UniProtKB/TrEMBL annotation:
The keyword Zinc does not apply. PANTHER family: 3-OXOACYL-[ACYL-CARRIER-PROTEIN] SYNTHASE 3, BETA-KETOACYL-[ACYL-CARRIER-PROTEIN] SYNTHASE III. InterPro entries: ACP_syn_III_C, ACP_syn_III_N, Thiolase-like. Residues 1-21 are annotated as: Disordered. Residues 289-377 form the Beta-ketoacyl-[acyl-carrier-protein] synthase III C-terminal domain. NCBIfam families: PRK07515.1. It comes from the Bacteria. This is Beta-ketoacyl-ACP synthase III.
């Protein structure tokens, strides 16, 4: 129907969608399981520890986790095996090629939510980008499977820029609209982070949670009356080893064996904190000014959800004062870090109350390093 409309080449966000896994793990449950694993390890290695050849493992703590990160709980796709001290990883029955993949399944749920909110018929959607930190397989692309399941006639591909995948996806979609190559693009971010988190690593076992989000980026001519104009987007990457995952088919390790740790998420958390905060704040301020926007006048910042302290510092540098929860909302307490989906969840849950003409910023950052900024204005 609306494809007969004359495209404007102006990209907008028509809607967002969210799928939240029903199961949650509280910090208390997580620490109890982790500490049971520590006790078992130390008991099993008591001789080596006494002889000084094996380092004893240290327990984790609920207080540390909440103070260091702001995280209180996380949603997961498979609670039982993650909390089982003998497994400590998500597990579910392997699916045949005829069944929908797990990542596609949750991506489709978030995408359907976004389509419904926009009142969008799939016949009007041209493309699907699956933008996430870890794909379930190299190919066929997850995006093409999601496209097929939704019944979209068009094209799709996967893209991975770790925690910045969704904002990089939004700019890519916006560029298709600007160039006239598509009029309606779904950016889907299914994040099963529990699969690449090392649940046995005390420094990071509390960080991540599972979720899926979707963002419908469209030409203004096609969009529903209420939408978010995309005022500008800016991306930046600078190579760093401080957040890294070496998993890959050229670089295999036995599942539980030696050399496994670096095939999962590893980071130098302190360095990340110190190096990424100034990089993000500078990119936001520079880009806001280039767009003719007062950074201090941004009504709301929907920042990447990795660490409450990082967001406090970034918001302070951008807004010029300590931001309250209304100016810089958090979903870390219930969702933890959901990689690229975090800033989209914050936007999805905390944007309806804004008034026509209000401006805001969706911003993600993470491994690469990478930063993606999407400036928006509410049109109602
Ligand atoms: N329970 C209890 N104590 C713990 C612990 C745990 N689970 N993990 C670490 N500690 C201890 C450390 O051993 C250390 O003790 P010490 O001072 O006696 O050596 C102390 O707590 C501080 O550890 P540190 O790793 O320096 O903590 P931190 O304050 O830097 O917080 C992070 C850790 C990961 C929460 C924080 O660095 C962070 O969020 N960084 C940014 C991460 C990020 O954005 N990554 C992007 C991912 S997409």
């Amino acid at each position: 129907m609306s494809h007969d409309m004359k495209p404007t080449g102006r990209p907008v966000i028509s809607s967002t969608g969210l799928f939240t896994p029903p199961e949650t793990i509280t910090n208390e449950e997580l620490v109890e399981s982790f500490n049971a694993y520590v006790e078992r390890f130390n008991a099993a290695n008591a001789d080596g520890i006494a002889a000084g050849t094996i380092e004893p493992l240290q327990p984790s703590s609920v207080e540390f986790i909440e103070k260091a990160s702001g995280i209180k709980a996380r949603h997961v796709m498979a609670k039982g095996p993650i909390l089982d001290p003998e497994i400590m990883a998500p597990r579910w029955p392997e699916r045949s090629n005829e069944e929908l993949s797990v990542l596609a399944e949750i991506g489709v749920k978030a995408a359907r939510d976004a389509l419904e909110r926009a009142g969008r018929d799939v016949a009007d959607v041209d493309a699907v980008l699956c933008a996430a930190s870890n794909m379930e397989r190299p190919y066929p692309a997850m995006a093409v499977e999601i496209q097929q399941e939704l019944g979209i006639d068009g094209f799709g591909f996967d893209m991975n820029v770790a925690c910045s995948s969704a904002t990089f996806g939004i700019q890519t979609a916006a560029d298709y609209i600007r160039a006239g190559n598509a009029r309606s693009v779904l950016v889907v971010s299914p994040e099963i982070t529990s699969g690449h988190l090392n649940w046995r690593d005390r420094d990071s076992h509390f960080i991540f949670g599972d979720v899926a989000t979707a963002v419908l980026v469209e030409d203004a001519a096609l969009a529903p009356a209420e939408h978010w104009e995309i005022l500008g987007t800016r991306l930046k990457t600078v190579f760093s080893n401080n957040i890294r995952n070496n998993f890959g088919f050229l670089n295999r390790a036995s599942p539980e064996g030696e050399g496994r740790a670096d095939k999962l998420f590893v980071q130098e958390g302190r360095k990340v904190f110190k190096e990424v905060v100034p990089m993000v704040a500078e990119l936001i301020v520079t880009e806001a000014e280039r767009l003719g926007l007062e950074p201090q006048a941004l009504r709301r910042l929907w920042l990447h959800q990795a660490n409450a302290g990082m967001n406090r510092l970034i918001a302070q540098r951008v807004l010029g004062h300590e931001a309250d929860a209304d100016e810089s909302p958090t979903v870390l307490d219930t969702y933890a870090n959901t990689s690229s989906a975090g800033s989209i969840i914050a936007f999805h849950k905390h944007s309806e109350d804004l008034a026509e003409g209000d401006t805001g910023l969706i911003c993600s950052f993470g491994a690469g390093y990478s930063v993606g900024a999407v400036f928006v204005r509410k049109v109602a």
